[in-house]
Amino acid sequence: MKIASLMPATALALALTLVSTDALAWGAQGHRLVARVAETRLTPAAQAEVDRLLASEPDPTLHAIAPWADQLRAKDPGLGKRSAGWHYVNIGEDNCHYEAQKHCKGGNCIVEALKTQTAILGDRSKSDAERAQALKFVVHFTGDIHQPMHAGYGHDKGGNDFQVQFNNRGTNLHSLWDSGMLNELKLDDDQYLARLLALPAPKLGKRSSINSDAVQWAEASCRIAIAPGVYPGKRTLAPEYAATYRPVAEQELRLAGERLAVLLNATLGKR
Questions:
Q1: Which of 2, 88, 118, 129 could be 150's S-S partner, Cβ–Cβ 3.0 to 4.6 Å?
Q2: The pLDDT value given to residue 271
Q3: Which fold has domain 3-268?
Q4: If pLDDT is split at 50, 70 and 90, which confidence band does 7 have?
Q5: Is the distance from CB of 159 to CB of 174 less than 8 angstroms?
Q6: 100-144: per-residue pLDDT in tens?
Q7: C-alpha to C-alpha distance for 158 and 109, rounded to whole angstroms
Q8: Using a CB cutoff of 8 Å and minimum separation of 24, what contacts does 1-5 make?
Q9: Do 98 and 89 form a contact (C-beta atoms < 8 A)?
Q10: Nearest to 79 by CA among 6, 140, 151
């Protein structure tokens, strides 16, 4: 008998609505993993510039600062509020076709934010403080843009309002993709990094520029989000859901890390 059937309907509904719908992307571990994949691919010149820009950090590594943008609302509420819209773009309702004037008014979405922060990072006339902050945003947003729910539907806030039961607990689809399916394995960062690096190397294709790459990345993530089956027909998920879609999430983490390295090598590796 399913757990849901043992609960009164009102109790089940309450349990589901009590789950936070304010999920961010990947969770701290996922963001660290994206950065750690990238760290294995940085050129010496790019690594040296990363080290220099992050020298004042308690832990001056990409993986340590990777979750930073999700912590802003507590640490820097003003910047957290200004940057809240930079974590996502809603293009699912438009068949994953991005149009800046329609989907990103005022540059307030992840596509334009990633472009802007990359430009700041690469501008050596900017102060080190500005560039260090931009580096933190670039690392984080490159992770975010590869989380399918961050480029999906607007009507349910990227799956935040789509409540499900997973492993007998209430959650939402966004949170499930952020961390729920990953956390189920109970691996530490070293173990999960080894798992990601053991995946077949993704085909990165020829890089053009972040202006076109960011659009392509968002549209590709969106196509995952709206693919048949990602939104389950039944709200109580069978184990097969994670078995099917955890590998997709892991492939996206690996791809994000590889692309982040390419982006940082191009942006920081040359004078």
A1: 88
A2: 65
A3: P1 Nuclease (1.10.575)
A4: very low
A5: yes
A6: 999 999 999 999 999 999 999 999 999 999 999 999 999 999 999
A7: 13
A8: 2/236, 3/165, 3/168, 3/236, 4/165, 4/236
A9: yes
A10: 140
- Per domain, the residue ranges of the chain are 3-268
C-beta separation of 15 from 163 below 8 A: no
Instruction: Fill in the amino acid letter for 260.
Output: L
Residue 135 to residue 130: CA distance in whole angstroms: 9
Cβ-count burial 28-62 (b if 16+ within 10 Å, e if not): bbbbbbbbbbbbebbeeebbebbeebbeeeeeeeb
Residue 168 CB-density burial (10 A; 0-12 exposed, 13-18 middle, 19+ buried): exposed
Main-chain phi, psi angles of 164, to 5 degrees: -140, 165
Q: Which amino acid is at 154?
A: G
The mean pLDDT value of the chain amounts to: 91
Task: Report the residue count for the chain.
Answer: 271
Other Cβ atoms closer than 10 A to 145:
30
Coil/strand/helix, residue 57? coil
Contacts of 27 (CB under 8 A, 6+ apart): 178, 179, 182, 183
- Report pLDDT digits (tens) over 76-103: 999 999 999 999 999 999 999 999 999 9
Q: How far apart are the first and last CA of the chain?
A: 64
- Check pLDDT > 60 for residue 21: no
